[in-house]
């Protein structure tokens, strides 16, 4: 009847708090140069803890076994197990990194710290059986486990004890204690109410990632109902799958665009090798130029210039529009160039687009509106029947 029936939820506060602890409090202001060392002096039995005014030797000798005092007093736990964070007792001061180094060097303080740890384990019904941190049930475990299952404020004390073990050089003591608590809560069902805190807080005080995963796998095997187990690292299958799909996408598109520009112009050279170069018509040359992806627009304009000169006799009505725009010098150059070989003119215009006579190119550039209409009419005439035969006769003449 004490077990929770609803599906548990992860605590954001717990996750944030224990993340800072495992990463050495990255946002905590360390008072390294504060030399009062009150926690170390308390464990040296030089000052009493406040506000009660009791020394450490009196706590270890007279309070041991007095479960009522240990249960109802809420000020001693911050002094027995200090941390680098503020607790409920504002008289207790936080540990500093310098104080931790000095604490580990002091044998007297370490001896009393282990005695305080044994005293609290006995209060919970647990005993320390060796120097490696392994624990087992104490002689009074039934009575103390029942009390621990009901007084849930002690779960905060256990979390503090685990944190302090890691701060003062006893990180290896954490995993045996947490494993024992999980076994009693999930397998033996002696303290079922503690399993939420054990999985939310106790496990995540362990800094070693592998040890945490071992404990979580153990808890997952024995957790009931199994579908309510929500602890552990999140799965990354979807994120990894999306990355693998995105990787091959980028290198495929780049070489395709490169091939389309440089490999296509080679095809018309191979196909035109079998035929005679002098017997090409204007229409065939236009098809070859359109296949070229680098200078398509410029070559097409120059080929239209050749078509205007070659069809000057048959298309007088169309040429009259362009002749009105041309000046007298352009007409003289056109007549002089008409006497040249048609084949050499076509080669100059097609192979050296930058050295073509200025009269042809300037005519196209200066009359953009007229050349647009003229180009449409020329395309229609070039595709009509009988054009190719007229062109051949003109080339022969």
TrEMBL record:
Listed GO CC annotations: membrane
Q: Known PANTHER family for this protein?
A: OPIOID GROWTH FACTOR RECEPTOR OGFR ZETA-TYPE OPIOID RECEPTOR, OPIOID GROWTH FACTOR RECEPTOR-LIKE PROTEIN 1
Q: What is this protein's record name?
A: OGRL1 protein
The UniProt GO MF terms for this protein read: opioid growth factor receptor activity
Point to the regions of Low complexity compositional bias.
270-280
Q: List, as start-end ranges, the regions of compositional bias called Basic and acidic residues.
A: 281-294, 321-343
Ranges for the region named Disordered are: 227-397
InterPro entries per the UniProt record, alphabetical: OGF_rcpt, OGFr
Highest taxon in the source lineage: Eukaryota
Q: What is the lineage of its organism?
A: Eukaryota, Metazoa, Chordata, Craniata, Vertebrata
- Give one Pfam family, short name only: OGFr_N
Q: Which family does it belong to?
A: Belongs to the opioid growth factor receptor family.
């Amino acid at each position: 009847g004490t077990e929770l029936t609803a599906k548990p939820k992860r605590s954001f506060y717990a996750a944030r708090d224990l993340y800072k602890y495992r990463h050495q409090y990255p946002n905590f202001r360390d008072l390294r140069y504060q030399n009062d060392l009150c926690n170390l002096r308390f464990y040296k039995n030089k000052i009493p803890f406040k506000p009660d005014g009791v020394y450490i030797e009196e706590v270890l000798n007279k309070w041991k076994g007095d479960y009522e005092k240990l249960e109802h007093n809420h000020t001693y736990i911050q002094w027995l197990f200090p941390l680098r964070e503020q607790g409920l007792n504002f008289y207790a001061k936080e540990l500093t990194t310098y104080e931790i180094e000095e604490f580990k060097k002091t044998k007297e303080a370490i001896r009393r710290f282990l005695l305080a740890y044994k005293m609290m384990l006995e209060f919970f019904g647990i005993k320390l059986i060796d120097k490696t941190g392994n624990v087992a049930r104490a002689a009074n475990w039934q009575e103390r486990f029942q009390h621990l299952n009901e007084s849930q404020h002690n779960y905060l004390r256990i979390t503090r004890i685990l944190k302090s073990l890691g701060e003062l050089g006893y990180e290896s003591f954490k995993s045996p204690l947490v494993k024992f608590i999980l076994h009693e809560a999930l397998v033996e069902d002696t303290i079922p109410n503690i399993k939420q805190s054990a999985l939310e807080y106790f496990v995540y005080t362990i800094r070693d990632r592998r040890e945490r995963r071992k404990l979580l796998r153990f808890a997952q095997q024995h957790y009931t109902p199994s579908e309510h187990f929500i602890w552990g690292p999140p799965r990354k299958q979807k994120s990894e799958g999306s990355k693998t799909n995105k990787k091959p996408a980028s290198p495929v598109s780049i070489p395709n665009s490169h091939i389309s520009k440089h490999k296509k112009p080679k095809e018309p050279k191979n196909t035109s090798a079998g035929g005679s170069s002098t017997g090409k018509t204007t229409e065939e040359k236009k098809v070859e130029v359109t296949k070229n992806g680098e200078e398509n627009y410029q070559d097409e304009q120059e080929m239209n210039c050749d078509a205007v000169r070659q069809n000057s006799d048959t298309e007088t009505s169309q040429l009259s529009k362009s002749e009105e725009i041309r000046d007298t010098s352009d007409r003289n150059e056109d007549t002089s160039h008409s006497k040249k070989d048609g084949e050499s003119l076509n080669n100059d215009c097609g192979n050296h687009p930058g050295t073509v006579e200025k009269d042809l190119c300037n005519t196209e550039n200066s009359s953009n509106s007229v050349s647009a209409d003229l180009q449409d009419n020329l395309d229609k005439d070039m595709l009509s029947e009988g054009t190719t035969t007229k062109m051949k006769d003109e080339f022969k003449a």
